[in-house]
Amino acid sequence: METTVIIGNGVAGTTAAATLRRNGYEGTIKLIGEEAALPYQRPPLSKAWLLDSDRPKPTPLRPLSFYEDNRIDLMRARKVAKIDTNERRIFFSDGKTTKFDNLILATGAAPRRLDLKGPT
Ligand SMILES: Cc1cc2nc3c(=O)[nH]c(=O)nc-3n(C[C@H](O)[C@H](O)[C@H](O)COP(=O)(O)OP(=O)(O)OC[C@H]3O[C@@H](n4cnc5c(N)ncnc54)[C@H](O)[C@@H]3O)c2cc1C
């Protein structure tokens, strides 16, 4: 059985997993993310915070049943530390590994501070 590993379970990774299944992909799908929470929508968080709530509740992108129904192995609170593309294997930060046939990188982006005077 073919295995597709998706690193990153934000909206991009979750949509990739859902699209594979919608288009009839039958292989194993492993959807990996660093966070322990169910994959959630980011944009509403800042709006809720600006309006009133100092601890806005994240809205899940999909219910847990979606991942179960679509045979998507949701691997939460798992950090990928290394990818070996020759061996087609990823290494988690705890030393465990998993193999893949196809790999999708959906790790998003993080803001980078400019090394300039002025911004704090
Ligand atoms: C508070 C907030 C408000 C926003 N508001 C808006 C808005 O109003 N309009 C708009 O257009 N955009 C907004 N954005 C930006 C938008 O949410 C992002 O563009 C979008 O989330 C990007 O999705 P993504 O799946 O590509 O990446 P991300 O959502 O960043 O997901 C990447 C995932 O990869 C995982 N990951 C990364 N590295 C590893 C690793 N080594 N091992 C395992 N997992 C890893 C992370 O855990 C994360 O879950 C907002 C973002 C935030 C945070």
From TrEMBL:
The keyword Flavoprotein applies. InterPro entries: FAD-oxidoreductase/Apoptosis, FAD/NAD-bd_sf, FAD/NAD-binding_dom. SUPFAM superfamilies: FAD/NAD(P)-binding domain (SSF51905). Its cofactor is FAD. GO terms for molecular function: oxidoreductase activity, acting on NAD(P)H. Transmembrane segments: none annotated. The keyword Ubl conjugation does not apply. Residues 4-118 form the FAD/NAD(P)-binding domain. One of its GO terms (cellular component) is cytoplasm. Keywords: FAD, Flavoprotein, Oxidoreductase. This is FAD-dependent pyridine nucleotide-disulfide oxidoreductase.
